[in-house]
Amino acid sequence: MIRPFAAAAAAALAVAVVPQVPAAQPADGWVSLFNCKDLTGWGYKAGDKFESFDGKTAASDGRYTAKDGVLTVNPGKGLKQLWTKQAFGTDFELRVEFRAAVNADSGLFVRGPQLQVRDYPVAGPYKSLTKYKAQDWNEVVVVVKGPSAHCTCNGEVLEAALKLPPTGPIGLEADRGQMDYRNIRIKPAAGK
Question: N or C of the chain: less Cβ packing under 10 Å?
Fold first, then answer.
């Protein structure tokens, strides 16, 4: 009689300690750019060549991995950028949640130009943010209208008018330290 109870208790405990990461549930026109399982839709670019990671949980060099609903930028040597296969040429809103290790340095590329995504208070350049949560989840929102983007972190302005080309993919950068991303989603502007 004790054994079935012990097995059920162990199973319940195992489920309780597995971290549950809420996945974005695209609705109301939102499209998820990360499926929470693998790197489908993402890859490395080298000139005109694109190394696709469709169906893979890790990039060929291990700098990027997907596990438990999180896309992780792993520490390594040198800069490396991960890009969406798809380019985006209309107005849109992009939302990305991130968690930076101490002094981590990454980036979010919007049609090419980079927005710094870092452990801001330590690594800068936006050291005066008051709503940034160190080593916790934060949200960057990028609203693209025409040739510029308005970029915020937890509602505080990072860039009021980041200049953009007419079209291009979304990218993430591996530079220094570990960075976690989740709920990467985009919504075309109404009527676009």
Answer: N
Per-residue pLDDT tens over the stretch 64-86: 999 999 999 999 888 999 999 99
13 located within any domain: no
What's the predicted TM-score (pTM) here? 0.85
> For the chain, what is the domain count?
1
CA distance 162 to 133: 23
Is residue 167 assigned to a domain?
Answer: yes
Residue 3 belongs to what H/E stretch? helix 2-17
Of 56, 103, 58, 55, whose CA–CA distance to 80 is shortest?
58
- DSSP track, 9-25: HHHHHHHHHSPP-PPP-
Query: What's the pLDDT tens digit per position in 126-151?
Result: 999 999 999 999 999 999 999 999 99
**CA distances for 95 relative to 88, 144, 181, angstroms:** 14, 11, 11
Q: How far is 54 from 88, CA to CA, in rounded Å?
A: 19
Owning domain of residue 146: 26-188
Give the domain CATH number at 42: 2.60.120.560
SS3 109: strand
